[in-house]
Structures are given as C-alpha cells and as structure tokens.
Specification:
269 residues; alpha/beta; Rossmann fold; seven-stranded mixed β-sheet; two-stranded antiparallel ribbon; 24% strand; binds S-adenosylmethionine
C-alpha cells in the first residue's frame, strides 16, 4: 500500500488513463466522429461559452474539455496524470481543436497556470472525491477566476457514492466521510475498464456531502447562483436504465433520488 495519497492516486490514474484512452467507455473514435460529452442540462445552466476562457480542473483525457471547445470556449485542461494529459493533447490535435493541456496537481494549479485567470472554472464527474481538502480547493478556484467569473461544477451525487451495487442500500458515509485509503485486493479495474487487472490497487478518496461543497465554495467568497440535482447520469451504474439519449436513469417504478448535482457560483466583479 502506498502511504502518500498524492503518490498513490497519481500511480492509480497513470495506470487507468491509458486503459481509458483505448476503451469503449470514453470511445475516443466516437468523440473524434463528433460526439458531445456535455450533459444536456449543462449548457443552459452555465450559459453561452463562445469566446470565453474555460479552465477545466481534473480534465482527465480531455473529452469534456474538448466538448466545451467545440462549443466555442477557449479551453485549458489541467490534470496531474501525465498519460491523461498526453492523450488529451493528441485528442485535441486529432480533432482539430485549439486547447492547452497542463500537467499539475490541482492544488498547484494557480502556479502551474502562471497566475492566469479565467471566465469559467469547470470541474466534476468524479473529480472532488479525490481531494482531501475542499476549503483549499475552493480557494484556488477563486484565485483562478477573473472578477465576475464563474465556477461551474457538475458532480456525481454523494448519495450515489454511498450506495451498494443494488442502488438501494447505503454502505458508505454520505456525510462527514473520512479521506482514506481504499484497497482493491481483487484488482478489479476502473469504472471505465472494469475487466482490467490493476497493478496499483490503493487509492485515497472520500465522499463530499453537498453541504460540505457549498460551505467550501461560500467560504472562498464565491456567490452561489445555482444548485441543481438531476435524475440523469452518464455513469453506467448497474441498477440504472440507459435511455435513447445515452444517459442513465432509475428504472420506472423505483423511488427516485438524485444521481448528479450541479453548482454555479460567481466571483464578485
Ligand atoms: C474521474 S476523472 C474526471 C473525469 C472527467 N470528468 C471526465 O469525464 O473526463 C478524475 C481525474 O482527476 C485527476 N486527479 C485526481 N486527483 C488529482 C489531483 N490532486 N490533481 C490533479 N488531478 C487529479 C485524475 O488524474 C483523473 O484524470
């Protein structure tokens, strides 16, 4: 087990990223053929991005970042995994899109991005659970925003993160969860490559409650403009049903709970 969370998580993601670059989940061929990975509710909540600068924190292999570029945003993606950033750079070239991809830890983002500020900081869908300190994260998000700029966050709902594979039983903390090492003795791959046998089997994560996220954002001096909860997700959880739009929902007849949430917060300007 690797004791240092940054080292363990980077090793895990460095192994995961190449699997994701070649797998069906991220389907990079489909992306190159024009697929848009932005969830349908996002453009309406964020507003027009054409011509605006957008910094995507924890951008992974760049599919969401470049989807915003297709909508006219001038994008910069940041992630601490070298293979993820390499894939994102190739994807930008292959899709003929302008994008800047930077390899750095999210906590070093303001320095790694040379003190630049952005109209939009975008992040989410499996990003926040990897971070041990949200107050510090929210502070650096505020530093990355120009006066009047917005944070737009779209995340997997903490309820979903707490559920067992049956979609009904809460088996993990959904509030005040510890940031801790998770060991996978079965080496059962990743959410996007479940069949892969992983060499790195330790990852440090925690679930963040909605109140903890909102408190961090307000604590950084940002003004909350929107908090949404959605009945759809792009994550193929086993108890959900895939719709014709490619998104997953709770099956008809079962009680509904939110699968995703979104938050928009603005820096004073
Ligand atoms: C689940 S992925 C995000 C996926 C993204 N929303 C997408 O769909 O493409 C999480 C990403 O966070 C990155 N990450 C985790 N901890 C990080 C950290 N401390 N600094 C920078 N990137 C980090 C990982 O390398 C990985 O690419």
């Amino acid at each position: 087990m690797i004791e240092d969370w940054q080292q363990a998580n980077r090793a895990w993601w460095d192994e995961a990223a190449p699997l994701h670059a070649t797998g069906d989940f991220y389907d990079l061929k489909g992306f190159l053929a024009g697929r848009d990975d932005i969830r349908p509710f996002e453009p309406g909540e964020l507003g027009p991005v054409d011509g605006l600068t957008l910094c995507h924190l924890q951008c992974h292999i760049g599919t969401d970042t470049l989807s915003w570029a297709r909508r006219g945003a001038r994008v910069t993606g940041l992630d601490f995994s070298d293979p993820a950033i390499e894939t994102a750079r190739h994807l930008a070239v292959d899709s003929g899109l302008e994008a800047d991809f930077v390899c750095a830890d999210v906590y070093d983002a303001p320095t790694a991005l040379g003190g630049r500020t952005f109209d939009i900081v975008y992040t989410g869908i499996g990003a926040l659970t990897w971070l041990p300190d949200l107050a510090r994260w929210a502070g650096l998000v505020a530093d990355l925003l120009r006066p009047g700029g917005v944070l737009y966050l779209v995340e997997v709902h903490p309820t979903v993160n707490g559920l067992d594979g049956d979609g009904k039983t809460i088996v993990e903390d959904t509030i005040a969860a510890p940031f801790r090492a998770w060991e996978d003795p079965d080496r059962t791959g990743t959410y996007a490559a479940p069949e892969a046998e992983m060499v790195n089997t330790t990852a440090y994560e925690r679930n963040w409650a909605l109140s903890e996220v909102v408190t961090a954002v307000l604590g950084a001096g940002l003004h909350l403009e929107l908090l949404g909860e959605q009945e759809v997700t792009n994550v193929p959880l086993p108890w959900l049903e895939r719709g014709p739009d490619g998104l997953y929902r709770i099956k008809p007849g079962s009680p509904r709970y939110p699968l995703t949430y979104s938050l928009r917060a603005r820096k004073s300007g």
